[in-house]
């Protein structure tokens, strides 16, 4: 690859990956979408579809929950796709995704640490009342992420592709074949991670139903997910008939004033700015500076006194961490509380701080478990199933619902959070809306995971022998007794390993490679 081509491609890669933190969290850097996009640009869409879908499945259960920084699926999928196309080997691109994803951890950790400096500089800007400087410091986090990803991507693309191609050509057959087997086993780790997160002990019947539907009726992931949705909806309808439902009307609003200080355009500005809330995420205060950045339009409207304005900026630059979608509810509630403080003075700084802290936990749980671990995963599984068959609809089915979720949750979070204040969360809790939604999503997720084990975890035994003049193949014998038994057993074994040891994921990845290489060398897999 030429220098100019490598530079241009590295810019694109850095822009794609930066969205995961710097702007919007649109999911366009996920392997299922970015892989085909890179493949289309490099003239090999099919390889992009296959590698992107495979890496998505591999990292499906590896999610950055809270402040954790796991192996990065985005970088792994993009660079893995580039390597696969350069080396003309999908198996090599998929297997290299693992070490690439692990190395990417350190890049992200570096960016997070660099952003601590921006937060400290913003403290002084707030004291000086220099809002413009504070905003620029926060947005500089985008440049930090872009620079880290650009430099690393360029080094990997310009110097790595030819090297990888030479390695691939020199690999003996048993090694390249072993890597293909490992690529088929790695999705089992993602399935096991999902089973752990979605509480297999409680919801195992739905996992079994999804597995059986896929094995014996040969239904694909999309069909199983639709059946799961129907089952979840049916359970919800039956449970509703046994209890009284509650309604949430505007009368429940915390607003006590007929005349609002905040205008609709102020809340719109808060909404737009929320897409950049993670730009300066760091290990010290996480997205505190992003929260304050989003609140600036509301605070400017509410506080004409410079001292009060500075105090408001300062209290919103304290520790804050929440899923970027559900964090907007806290933004809306905080805006309502700030308005009451500005109008009546009965709301204290401590009240605002404690309210934000109280909402962080449950809203983070909803964002991580429902939106990230379940909603995204279901559409990723459906999209990956199509993409593995070379269907371009795969990445589209994944990206459209996730973009809509991003926009709608942020919009309604701000406007409903402001309108109903803290009673929004209280009402949701008292009416069990969250609990029912999580239960329904888990039922669908469990059934989809059962189907994914059948469709995406690939391992076949090649052992055979002759008895009474008849050739017997071990894999065919197993399929007659219990189809897809090996994928199921391997996934469950991985699940129990993850239950016993949270860090077992690294050992399991090594085990996948060991099984593939040894199995191919001995010609038993």
UniProtKB/TrEMBL annotation:
Keyword Cell division in record: no
Principal location class: membrane
TM ranges: 32-55, 62-85, 91-115, 136-159, 171-195, 207-238, 370-389, 396-417, 437-457, 477-498, 504-522
Keywords associated with the record: Cell membrane, Membrane, Phosphotransferase system, Sugar transport, Transmembrane, Transmembrane helix, Transport
UniProt xrefs under Pfam families: EII-Sor, EIID-AGA
Membrane-related topology note: Multi-pass membrane protein
Keyword flag Cell membrane: yes
Subcellular location, record wording: Cell membrane
PANTHER family, per database record: N-ACETYLGALACTOSAMINE PERMEASE II COMPONENT-RELATED, TRANSPORT PROTEIN, PTS SYSTEM
Protein name (record): PTS mannose/fructose/sorbose family IID subunit
Species this protein is from: Oceanobacillus neutriphilus
